[in-house]
User: What shape does this take?
Amino acid sequence: MRALKFGLPLLVFVLLAGFFSVGLLRDPREVPSPFIGKPAPAFRLDQLHEAKSAFAPADMKGKVWMLNVWASWCVSCRVEHPLLVEIARQNLVPIVGLNYKDRREDGVQWLAKFGNPYVLSAHDFDGSVGIDYGVYGVPETFVIDKAGVIRHKQIGPITPEALEKTILPLIRELNA
Amino acid sequence: MKRIAAIGLLVIAGFALAQPVATPPSGGAVEARMKALAEELRCLVCQNQTIADSNAPLAQDLRGQIREQISQGRDDDQIRAYMVARYGDFVLYRPPFKATTVLLWLGPFLLIGLGGAIFVAIVRRRRAESEGPTLSARRRSEIEDLLEKD
Assistant: This one.
């Protein structure tokens, strides 16, 4: 009985502390995406550099690719950017940019300054494509397979760790 | 005269600049429905605010999106489904009851039940301890008989 009297509160405390510490260590911004396993929403947007040509996700059919949502006003994008440039330099996977709620000249200038890792960027000036992709925190990156299905979503900047442990293995698997 | 005209133009220009941010032409009913809906949706940029409360650009866009869909004649459930398809159940301040949310919905009742059970158990035990040993009627009459014999 004594054991229960002291043991039970202790057990409850340890359980609660466990739940809380797990809760604290998780990133509240990482909300499970409803897009995983679903076809990438179709859109048709003007390109950032060549306003006269358009881009649609269907253009990438048959390729494993990444859609990276970025903006010149986005501070974390700058943190992520060198990694994207490196991915492009090593030709690991084609990256298409979605320039989100940005003025054309700002986006072009930003890329000229920090390097352009993108095959091309689509210009989502009013952010409507962003809404269709459930974007809520730029940068976000979608890994899309050959059939045009979204396989992974990175919320926030791609970290070297996420790239090595999650994204690159997935891309290798999808390309196999 | 020219000066007055210039001032007038400036004033009008001011209105023209201020207008694009304001709500598009729509009836009060649309606005009220939009507000009611937006109050049930979480803003994912600032997660502890609703889309109605938040001033984040995304929340503004989503309010516009809701307005537009209401004017297109879509009903509340359709608009909610539109949001869930993009941002997951997490956008709903009233999450649906399903396998992944069973613990969320039933957890509080489970805890109350558990607490109640512990409470009842403790009260029962205390009562048993305080009442002390009791005598059965037969035992009592036997004792009374013994006492009378003396």
